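Open question from group meeting: does this chain pack into something compact, or does most of it stay loose? Before anyone orders reagents, we agreed to write out a predicted structure and look at it together. Recording both the input and the output here so the notebook holds the full record.
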Amino acid sequence: MGAFFSSLNRTIVAGIVITAIFIGVAGTYQSFGGMGYWTFFMRWLHILSGVMWIGLLWYFNFVQTPSMPKIPDEQKPAVSKVIAPTALFWFRWGAMSTLVTGALLAWMSGYLLQALSLQKPFTAIGLGAWLAIVMWFNVWFIIWPNQKKALGIVTVTPEEKAAAAKLAGMTSRINTMLSIPMLYCMAAQSHGGF
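Structure tokens returned:
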């Protein structure tokens, strides 16, 4: 059993198989051809993507960044050369996937333009979408380019490296702050929060 779960790929495939079994047990496979099912499926992909994105954002801010000063200097390269680049790969593509699936979901549901223009009754989801767009922009155009410098993926002077680390860290904290109202807006739309 341990060998099975030592493989991330096998674990993910098993999760998909269990999901397929649950679809069969619940009988939702009968609605595969309907637009309602595909809208639900897109919502599910959007949630999966969002968990990846915000989960990693919170990992960086609640775990990795506060832990780095406690790690002995000789062990820090394990984080900066191995863990952080991999986490940043999934972080930025989680952001991209969340934004794309969210836009597709809003389009499939018929409210994309109303949400982006903050029309009633799509104000909550629209505010959440705009916060997500700002956060996505921050990930791709501020955090990632500066993290490449801070992690030594791109060669820069020590002064540029320090400035890049500071800007990436500050922008990541801004995204953490924005994630709180963004998640509230997303939940509020479907549950009548405002």
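Observations to bring back to the group:
The CA atoms of residues 1 and 74 lie 35 Å apart.
The chain has two domains: 1-31, 33-191.
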